[in-house]
Amino acid sequence: MRADKKTRRFSAVNILPLLKTKFIGKETIFLPEIDSTNNFALKLLKGKMVSNGALIIANYQSAGRGRHGKRWLAPKGKALLFSVIFTELQQSPLLPLLTLAGSLSVAEAIRQGSPSLKPVIRWPNDILINGKKVAGVLAETSAELKASKPTTGAVLGIGINVNQRQKDFLPEIATTATSLSILLGKPISRLEILTSVLLKLEKNYSALEQGQHNKFWSRFKKLSSTLGKGIRIKLPDGRKISGTAVDIDTDGALLVRLDSGQTIKFFSGDIEELQWAE
Ligand code: BTN
């Protein structure tokens, strides 16, 4: 991975010629600043005035969002902050899988660009390198869309820590976050990573859409750091449950075997991976 060349500013004009995708990013909206690319994308989706695969990318987000209401903030110009709009997606069964497709695509793109880095996926949406979070994924559909039947359309938001320094991270994540630049010891090209992630995303999304789930799962499970591990899962209502992550179901849910021997399915939750593995 190289640094952004001075002549290649990070803008739609420079992104478009580099894209090798068939439909993702063919419509690209570059925003110097926005509250959240996911918010912007959800509004476009609701207004039905956008094409499948449209890319919304920002140089800065004033109110970037992570899962479970967490903040996702990065200094101007340092991170990759974007959302892809899927207008055709049926909310069920593909929506939970979209998060996993996003996570897989980021991990694969980083691996390909920097073979020395070994990103893994902490189910369902954290991309970790050496145990620290380098990227996160947030798939959403709006309440208005949910209310309309049949439900179609979703937004996949991706945030990748590219050129942040350690002191750039919010205090609450200062010890658990890292960036590609910190790991590689040099400035990194956001353009290069973006084009690579989008190409992987198109491949992974299409595999799911065309029912080629086996290929998808074998790639995903290979990069999962969660499977086979002892985990503690924090549920949206605050309860914590411990067990062993035994598998990921075809609908994207995590299967956890409790000490009692019972296996439970989790669709959401914050995972803490413990040291022991099966
Ligand atoms: C997480 O790890 O909790 C998910 C983080 C997702 C952040 C991205 S940045 C682009 C898009 N816009 C947002 O407001 N959030 C997502």
Notes on the protein architecture:
The strands form 2 sheets. This protein has a 7-stranded mixed β-sheet, sandwiched between helices. The chain has a 5-stranded antiparallel β-sheet with strand order 11-10-9-8-12, with no helix packed on it. The protein has helices spanning 12-15, 37-46, 91-113, 143-147, 180-184, 190-209, 213-222; strands at residues 28-31, 55-58, 80-90, 120-122, 126-129, 132-140, 152-160, 229-234, 240-248, 254-257, 263-266, 270-277. The protein contains 7 helices and 12 strands. With 278 residues, the chain is of the alpha+beta class. Biotin is lined by residues 36-38, 61, 64-67, 70, 72, 81-83, 125-126, 136-138, 157-159.
**Ligands, deduplicated:** biotin
Q: What is the SS-derived class?
A: alpha+beta
Oligomer: single chain
Please count the beta strands (DSSP E, at least 2 residues each).
Answer: 12
* Series of secondary-structure elements, N-terminal to C-terminal: HEHEEHEEEHEHHHEEEEE
N- and C-termini, Cα separation? 35 Å
Helix content: 25-40%
* Rounded radius of gyration (Å): 18 Å
Q: Mean of residue pLDDT?
A: 91
